[in-house]
Write a structure and sequence with these properties.
Layout (H helix, E strand, L loop, with lengths): L1 E4 L7 H9 L2 E4 L14 H17 L3 H4 L6 H17 L1
Parallel strand pairs: 1-2
């Protein structure tokens, strides 16, 4: 089963039903205004923060943030270089 991790702005019954119909588990914290909070996997939701931090670090490379490269292969190549540089820091 695949998982869809999103922030609470995406907490809507229609989206949850749509994801469930496609066999996808919605890991979305409930909106504070919801009368009956829907339980979610908090440990899996913590991984979202790690991914968001990775994107933030990669966007410090201007070439990635503005997508200078016209070809996907060149963009992917520099993305791999930027990831290696970030990992070595």
């Amino acid at each position: 089963m695949s998982r869809h991790i999103a922030d609470r702005a995406y907490d809507a019954r229609k989206l949850r039903d749509w994801l469930g119909g496609r066999g996808c588990e919605a890991i979305i914290p409930p909106n504070p205004t919801r009368k009956q909070p829907i339980p979610y996997d908090f440990e899996a939701y913590k991984l979202r923060n790690t991914v968001e931090r990775c994107f933030n670090k990669l966007k410090h490379f201007r070439r990635i943030a503005t997508r200078f490269d016209r070809r996907a292969i060149h963009f992917l190549s520099f993305l791999q270089i930027a990831t290696a540089i970030t990992w070595m820091r």
